[in-house]
User: Which sequence fits this backbone?
């Protein structure tokens, strides 16, 4: 009893079904530790919660009145690593109380369903009924209370879960899908090249979903591009923070490199030469920040610089992996995700990007590595890269 007095009885808790069940051993443990750590960090803003896991389920329990359950639920629905999420109502550990709670708390769901079953779990092994007996008792009474329902133990529309735990019992239904993927940070750190377009925010989101902690880099061509175009990129980055967590955006002054390339190199190779500098600068930054890969929003064949040969020429300057999660996706598929993660409306705002300002009239679609290297042979490449890296402006964005 003293235990119950110490812990305020939770009226409602949030349950997380932890994802990627294929993970085993050490990976599994690091998955859960990362995920719970990320959940704690994210919940700080929403009140005082207790966060722990048991048998591939995360438990999020409010400790006091400071907790905003609606905003916490919304935030947790964007937490990578979670396969399913639901809210659950606490009640007394008696079949009567569990039945009453199911009847009121799940009323709308049960009234609108056709078939159901009840599944019980006993974490408290001293509970006097077996799981099967508890499911049968509460299931039978629910069936009487909702004549619209038939019992279907194999393929029910709704499963009512009863969980008998140490201090309380909990009642809930099937979880909604969670954000999926791996907990941010589990796969290490990488740098994502963020432009103001539709693609790179989606690429960034996809790689955060695979467990990468990200730093963002943006190439900015003042005064050819306006302050609004920079604001647009920061707005996009901000929109990614609910998924990615805190983000640092490294804004690289790119004008003088672009002007040098315009002045000294063949115009039809400008785009690929410019992209090689983007990769060199990003890689130099990656070394500084201990990041192990670069991410771009390229998709095969979408524009002249995204052919196989152009990508080979771009990638040749990199010694770390370049991840291109959109490489095999159609624009409609990319747009679909950008709408889902709410970056689309910002991406289509009509501010120019550093690439569009200097686009050559006839960009080469099949530049060979040799001619590209030849075209930049007279440039002071290392100095140009170091100069750009040393003049980076950093903006920190909180979720
Ligand atoms: P996006 O929609 O992401 O702008 P895009 O289809 O316009 O992509 P490109 O302009 O060729 O394609 O750029 C390809 C990738 O290079 C981008 O997805 C992004 O990762 C990176 N990139 C392009 N411009 C910039 C920039 N100004 N700052 C940072 N990264 C950039
Ligand atoms: Mg672009």
Assistant:
């Amino acid at each position: 009893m003293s235990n119950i007095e110490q812990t305020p009885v939770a009226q409602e808790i949030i349950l997380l079904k932890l994802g990627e069940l294929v993970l085993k051993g050490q990976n599994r443990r690091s998955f859960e530790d990362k995920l719970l750590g990320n959940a704690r960090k994210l919940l700080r803003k929403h009140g005082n919660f207790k966060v722990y896991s048991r048998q591939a389920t995360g438990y999020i329990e409010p400790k006091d009145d400071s907790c905003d359950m609606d905003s916490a639920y919304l935030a947790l629905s964007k937490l990578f690593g979670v396969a399913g999420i639901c809210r659950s109502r606490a009640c007394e550990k008696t079949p009567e109380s569990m039945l009453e709670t199911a009847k009121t708390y799940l009323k709308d769901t049960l009234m609108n369903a056709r078939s159901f079953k009840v599944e019980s779990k006993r974490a408290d092994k001293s509970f006097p009924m077996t799981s099967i007996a508890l499911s049968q008792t509460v299931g039978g009474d629910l069936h009487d209370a909702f004549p619209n329902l038939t019992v279907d133990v194999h393929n029910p529309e709704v499963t009512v879960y009863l969980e008998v735990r140490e201090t309380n019992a909990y009642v809930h239904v099937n979880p909604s899908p969670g954000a999926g993927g791996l907990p941010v940070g589990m796969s290490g750190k990488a740098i994502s090249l963020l432009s103001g377009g539709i693609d790179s925010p989606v690429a960034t989101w996809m790689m955060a979903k695979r467990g990468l902690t990200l730093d963002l880099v943006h190439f900015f061509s003042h005064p050819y591009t306006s302050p609004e175009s920079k604001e647009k990129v920061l707005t996009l980055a901000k929109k990614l923070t609910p998924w990615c967590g805190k983000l640092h955006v490294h804004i690289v002054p790119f004008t003088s490199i672009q002007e040098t390339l315009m002045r000294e190199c063949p115009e039809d190779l400008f785009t690929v030469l410019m992209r090689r500098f983007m990769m060199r600068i990003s890689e130099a930054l990656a070394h500084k920040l201990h990041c192990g890969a670069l991410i771009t929003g390229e998709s095969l064949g979408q524009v002249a610089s995204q052919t196989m040969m152009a990508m080979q020429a771009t990638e040749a300057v990199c010694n770390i992996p370049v991840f291109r999660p959109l490489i095999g996706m159609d624009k409609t598929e990319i747009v679909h995700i950008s709408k889902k993660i709410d970056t689309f409306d910002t991406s289509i705002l009509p501010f120019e990007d550093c690439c569009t300002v200097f686009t050559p009239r006839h960009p080469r679609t099949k530049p060979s590595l040799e001619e590209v290297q030849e075209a930049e042979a007279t440039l002071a490449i290392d100095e140009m890269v170091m100069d750009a890296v040393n003049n980076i402006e950093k903006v920190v964005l909180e979720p």
In short: The chain is about 40% helix and 20% strand.
